[in-house]
Design goal:
18 strands, Alpha-Beta Plaits, alpha+beta, 15 helices, 460 residues, 7-stranded antiparallel β-sheet, globular, 5-stranded antiparallel β-sheet, Uridine Diphospho-n-acetylenolpyruvylglucosamine Reductase, domain 2, Uridine Diphospho-n-acetylenolpyruvylglucosamine Reductase, domain 3, 20% strand, 4 domains
Length: 460
């Protein structure tokens, strides 16, 4: 592909203005990486402020054939926003408006650069609720959430980002502006292009606006923390709750390694015999929330629960969540490199998954603390090592490959919410097979025959 020369820089400047384009080395470095720790420098960064400006940029890229990588907050874990072939990084920083909140229609039209938690706060002012809540919601953008099909703890009850998308405004690789879907719940006209573009990691089109479905804000939320002697007791509690027709908003699980780290570095009051934890939230009508919390406690106690703590108010709920939120910073202090895999297994296979992960840790001499969203079987497997340790990176790669093979063998998926990007591209065929991958490549070619939009992603 073509390098970006002075002629292209001049044309880009005329589109976005001098203050919204940069080739300064510090700015290029800032836009060269995400949480995957695999940096690649772009040649230029632009900050368009409208759909029309995005369109003009893509028309230029189409004509001159230079690569364009869309970027939100750069919060991804798989390299989706990393410009592996250099070229231009197109940020959504200035595309940050909430265009309309339609209370009567329970919808919101939002630009991709809006921070997820900011959107939730704005719709809450009108008594509405946008449920998807990725862990990065305080800094990740809605556009990034759509591009990666983000989920979060509330996915068990409410589902993931694509389930709230009614329509999109997008710019195609040749600069064409297109609208998909509509503002209605029902729409079966043609192929569902909104669903296809969601989760495509910026390889098919650049999202410039999203129509999202909202729901009424729940009246109450209550939180309960449960400690168990073993992860199998915690996993059985999850299955028993579903069997009892209790569907909490959130069920977070942590293994013995996680609790050991918290006990040693954060809270030494945790019982020594606790080797697994669940944090459960229920929301909705106050009467039903009370019933559900009581049911959670009874089911947990029937599975040898060691300790039950029910939050009486929002401050106590936040205290209970400290157990979970302290994990990532604690882990980061102990090891300098993390391979963060977000596997998904059927709920019935959660105990087997933890058992297999422990075997991998022993086999490859690695530390692998594991936590995640037990309600939907989405586990965050953190393969930790220090770069200075000889061969540790290779061992981590082999452990990840074996983990993915196990996950697929039990009917799961190698990624629940982090996407494929760069880091999981080598493992794609484990789950999809060559025929399906070839079909996906043909879809990519149909959208982007010149291969200029986020090249090098998903397909190895």
């Amino acid at each position: 592909m073509r390098k970006i020369d002075k002629e292209i820089i001049k044309a880009l400047t005329s589109i976005v203005g001098r203050n919204n384009i940069t080739t300064h080395p510090a700015d290029l470095e800032l836009h060269s990486y995400d949480a995957s720790n695999n940096p690649h420098l772009p040649e230029v960064v632009v900050h368009p402020g409208s759909t029309e400006e995005v369109s003009e940029i893509m028309k230029l890229a189409w004509e001159k054939e230079f690569p364009v990588t869309p970027r939100g907050a750069g919060a991804g874990f798989t390299g989706g926003s990393v410009p592996v072939e250099g070229g231009l990084v197109l940020t959504t920083r200035r595309l940050n408006k909430i265009r309309e909140i339609a209370v009567d229609d329970l919808t919101v039209i939002v630009e991709p650069g809006v921070i997820t938690s900011a959107l939730q706060a704005e719709v809450a002012k009108k008594g509405l609720f946008y449920p998807p809540d990725p862990a990065s919601k305080e800094f990740s953008t809605i556009g990034g959430n759509v591009a990666e099909s983000a989920g979060g703890p509330r996915a068990f009850k409410y589902g993931v980002t694509p389930q709230y998308i009614l329509g999109l405004e997008v710019v195609l690789p040749d600069g064409t502006i297109m609208n998909t879907g509509s503002r209605t719940i029902k729409n079966v006209v043609g192929y569902n292009l909104s669903a296809l573009i969601a989760g495509s990691e910026g390889t098919l089109a650049i999202i410039t606006a999203i129509i999202l479905r909202l729901i009424p804000k729940p009246e109450m939320t209550r939180t309960i923390q449960l400690l168990f002697p073993d992860v199998s007791n915690a996993a059985k509690t999850v299955s028993d709750l579903v069997a009892a027709k209790v569907i909490p908003t959130t069920i977070e699980i942590m293994d013995d390694i996680c609790l050991g780290l918290i006990r040693e570095h954060v809270d030494d009051s945790l019982p020594e015999d606790s080797n697994a934890a669940l944090i459960v939230e229920c929301d909705g009508d106050p009467y039903m929330v009370g019933k559900d919390i009581d049911a959670v406690r009874r089911v947990a106690e029937g599975n040898d629960c060691i300790k039950v703590r029910i939050a009486k108010n929002a401050d106590e709920a936040e205290e209970l969540w400290t157990l979970r939120r302290s994990l990532s910073p604690t882990i980061a202090k102990l090891w300098d490199t993390k391979v963060n895999e977000d596997i998904v297994v059927p709920r019935s296979k959660i105990p087997a998954a933890f058992e297999y992960i422990n075997k991998l840790a022993a086999k490859w001499r690695l530390n692998i603390p594991t936590f995640g969203h037990a309600g939907d079987g989405n586990l965050h497997v953190n393969i930790m090592y220090n770069r200075a340790e000889t061969g540790a990176g290779d061992r981590a790669h082999e452990a990840a490959k074996e983990l993915f093979e196990f996950v697929v063998s039990v009917g799961g998926s190698i990624s629940g919410e982090h996407g494929i990007g760069l880091s999981k591209a080598p493992f794609l065929e484990i789950e999809l097979g060559s025929e399906q991958i070839e079909l996906l490549k043909r879809i990519k070619h149909a959208f982007d025959p010149k291969g200029i939009l986020n090249p090098g992603k998903i397909f190895k």
